[in-house]
Amino acid sequence: MSDAAKTIADICRTFGNDPARLMDIARAVQAKFGHIPGEALDRIAACVGVPRVEVESTVSFYTFFSEQPKGRIVIRLCDDIIDRMSGMETVARAFTDELGIPVGGTTPDGKISLEYTACIGMSDQAPAAMVNDIVVTYLSSDKAREVVRILRETGDPRKLVHRLGDGNNAHPLIHAMVHNGIRRKGPVVLADLPPGDAVRKAVAMSPVEVIRDLKTSRLRGRGGAGFPTGLKWEFTRAAEGAQKFVICNADEGEPGTFKDRVLLTEYPDLVFEGMTIAGYAIGAATGLFYLRAEYAYLRAFLENVLQQRRAKGLLGQAVGGREGFDFDIRIQMGAGAYVCGEETSLISSCEGRRGDPKTRPPFPAQKGYLGFPTCVNNVETFCCVARVIEKGPGWFAQIGSKGSPGTKLLSISGDCSRPGVYEFPFGVPLREVLKECGGDEAAAVQMGGPSGQLVGPSDFDRTICYDDLPTGGSMMIFGPGRNVLEIARTFLEFFVHESCGYCTPCRVGNVLLKQKIDELLAGRGRAEDLPYLEQLGQSVKFLSRCGLGQTSPNPVLSGLKNFRAAYEALAPARPDGRVPSFDIREALQESETLQGRASVVFTP
Amino acid sequence: MSDKTIAFTIDGTAVTATPGQTILQAADAAGIYIPRLCAHARLEPFGACRVCTVKVNGRPQSACTTPAVAGMVVENDTPEMLEHRKALIEMLFVEGNHFCMFCEKSGNCELQALGYRFGILAPKYPYQFPERSVDATHPDVMVDRNRCILCARCVRASRDLDGKHVFQFVGRGPGKKIWINAEAKLKDTALASADQAVDFCPVGAILRKRVGFAVPIGERRYDHAPIGSDIEARRDGGAQ
After folding, report:
1. N or C: which end of chain A has fewer CB within 10 A?
2. Which residues of B touch A504 (CB under 8 A)?
3. Per-residue pLDDT tens for A272-315?
4. What residues form DSSP beta bridges with A75?
5. Does A61 contact B171 at a Cβ distance shorter than 8 Å?
């Protein structure tokens, strides 16, 4: 057996040769060798006892795994609408010039790779990039050149952290230049209350009483869908299963969202308390904390918080002094896949599989992780759970609006003077939020990220809550100069990249939607294109298997509804039936390059 | 009718199901055809093609994966559903490279047959003309990814009926493709000519060699009656 084969066998053994730990195994092999070559797929398959193609299926799904060799240093430049608005393209040019490679390439010495990546949760400090696990923020072309220089000189991405962020970002286990950007604290999540004795209080009650309190509080899931948390827990508790699991969805991937990152940095105890209370309420002994790969820089810190909680008796055996309640939490790392924020995809990923959503029914509460009843909640939801138990359901229910009790964290970015994290009670009018963040000039606001709605000034008096303008937390502000079709195109590019490809409408339909927007923006639109976009968008929404495809046409559909004029301007009626689809200059480009001279085009 | 019989309606017609049956299974038994591509009576439901999408109490659900529940109101053969299904079939046609006129599967192809059944003359979406690979290394079987619709029938048949795991998907999104349990070549897998995985391909993506035209065009499965006619015959024959 070669040394490499031995190393891989050791890695697999560390994870019990368990195929359900394939994400961890692949991550470790990738970290060790810089990629996961064919021989490694064979070796892993043999160790964990699954066909090679199953391992390849998982590995090929995630953008942070690679079957091809890459540099030991990978620069992942965050590419989304906010970063583009903040000058990302100039930064990209500086990187490509300085490194002498295109985006997607690796330097000839094999040391540094450069690629784009989807939103890394730093929209309020854009343009940003990840260099391996290290986050660099507020990039400019000068800073990009500096990054390359330091990497060439030291080979150590940690040397890029030249100043430390506020709060726990400066903690030695985080050591990041990221800042929190907390602009508005509220009474629930970002309250200046130390994480209290919520767990001890919960275990003094019966599990049924805990669930009853949550139902009384009318807390709804903060991930976006808004399912009542107490009801979800009740279903999971009632389901039959030899084991049960709690999963925290910390795969904050919706472009423009970053509030979970701040919660994990400043309020990790609150999150873990919520998870522990869930474990007690539903009867689980294990919690999985699914952390997106982009937040790997928080992992050591979070592991340490878990360790401290074990030392305090808040995890492990007889949690909170309650005999018979044993509960612990394991951090499961993701590997770059937005769709894993969908709860059944997230479960697939935790099981070491491709991040394909699962067929529903059965729902996770009946049949989730490894087939056992599982309760999946969002980071912010768990924070609210801890507060509900700590302060009482009545206290919680009187905050916010009638159908949407409590507060909502908003991640605000784009054209405003005070981007950052805001906690508002539900029911706040959008106009008030815009005023507070310095976004009064907004011409359009994307509520709930790309999968949400693009709304204009006529909607600014609507309120943020589940029944009016819902949001998982992303709020992107666009000033008067922005092109709503360009925004839609960027979002569609994202969905094309992030679709798992399982079902036809999402896999194909998003590509077709994007192509049509491309045509409109290239001046090749015609009036018939608008009903085409509407029908195609409706079909993708109607037919798709999971939330990704059921919402991906929203930027186009809400744009067509709220910014019709912008679309119509690019889709003129063409009575002669002719569409300018031929660009002579573009067609001549290649021959001009080959000949080394410009052609003369005569226009009548 | 036993106590356990589940009664519901499809387009107003009363249908009964046994516990555990899906909407699609109950419809098949009742002689009501719900179009489908990835679903197959002998395979686990997969729910990928979405062609069998029906409205269940007003909400879209794939009939192949949704259990029948008493009292549910299912809409199947409506103008709205036809438009959505046509959209799906057209998406599948433009996504791959489907050259019906010289495909050995023509006349036996379920994608083509659905195109005919729905009266599709030309897709309204632009052809994507993707570059996809052909694997003819195996002595008896070839895989042509140009014609693959990613239905996973071969994945399920090889795993569950042949016990071999020859096929699985790699990649994601538009880059997702059917792949094999070997480094690159079909001949290096355990696939045998007699494997059921070969038979379950609804299109011409997995083909047995040297028998492509053993049955002449004009005498093939869908040459005389539209796809679904066999299921509908049960209803006409008064099976229920």
Report:
1. C
2. 48-51, 88, 91-92, 95, 149-150
3. 999 999 999 999 999 999 999 999 999 999 999 999 999 999 99
4. A114, A131
5. yes
ipTM of the complex: 0.96
Confidence tier at A195 by pLDDT (50, 70, 90): low
Number of domains in chain B: 2
Q: Which residues of B touch A537 (CB under 8 A)?
A: none
Residues B59 and B127 in one domain: no
Query: Does B240 score more than 50 pLDDT?
Result: no
CB neighbour list of residue A332: distance below 8 Å, 6 or more residues apart? A23, A24, A288, A289, A290, A291, A349, A350
CB contact B23 to A (< 8 Å): no
Ranges of H-type helices in A62-140: 81-85, 88-99
Predicted structure pTM score: 0.95
Chain-centroid distance, C-alpha B113 = 11
Instruction: Provide the 8-state DSSP code for B147.
Output: G
- A571-587 pLDDT, tens digit per residue, is 999 888 887 777 888 88
Band of pLDDT at residue A197, cut at 50, 70 and 90: confident
Out of A507, A508, A539, closest to residue B84 by CB: A539
CATH 1.10.10.10 at A484-569, yes or no: no
Do B97 and B118 lie in one domain? The reply is yes
Read off φ and ψ for residue A368, nearest 5 degrees. Answer: -120, -120
Asked if A508's CB is within 8 angstroms of B92's CB, the reply is yes
| One domain, residues B32 and B62 | yes
Give which of A486, A536, A529 is closest to A510, Cα–Cα: A536
CB nearest A502 (choices: B48, B180, B182): B48
* The CATH number fitting domain A411-478, selected from 3.10.20.600, 3.30.70.20, 3.30.590.20, 3.40.50.300: 3.10.20.600
So where are chain A's domains? 3-59, 79-90+116-162, 183-397, 411-478, 484-569
Same-domain check for residues B125 and B12 = no
Q: Is A515 helix (H, G, I), strand (E, B) or coil?
A: helix
Measure Cα distances from B152 to A590, B157, B160 in Å. 41, 8, 12
Q: How many residues are given for chain B?
A: 240
State the burial class of residue A149 (Cβ atoms within 10 Å of its Cβ: 0-12, 13-18, 19+): exposed
Question: What CATH class is the domain A183-397?
Answer: alpha beta
